[in-house]
Amino acid sequence: MHIALARFPAVPAEQDADFRAWFAWSNDELRDTAGLRARRLLQAPDGSYTALVEHESADTFAAMHTAGPVDRIHERLGRILTDAPMATKYDVVVDYPTAARCCGGGDGASSHEDAPQARVSGGCCRS
Q: What is the pTM of this model?
């Protein structure tokens, strides 16, 4: 799995509702993007925003940025914010499943084939 954390510049208070609406709209625009697993908007106690984007791989993440909706998404964001978000990218090397994920929600296996298999202590995923 590949993760990107995109920290947004400060959102002016009068643009906050528009920014949140933009994020929801952009999720709809990207809904059918190959390899996109999840896209979440996070807000820190100081009011700043970060997007958490989960992809199957670095390749699917890169391909998303060449897709048609991305230009429209960035153009519309430019009407709300003056600066672009700054992204940091990560490859997941160990994925620790919780009981909720492995109990009825999958087999609990790591998404990285070489990563050690994690187990939830006392849960249904124990061996």
A: 0.74
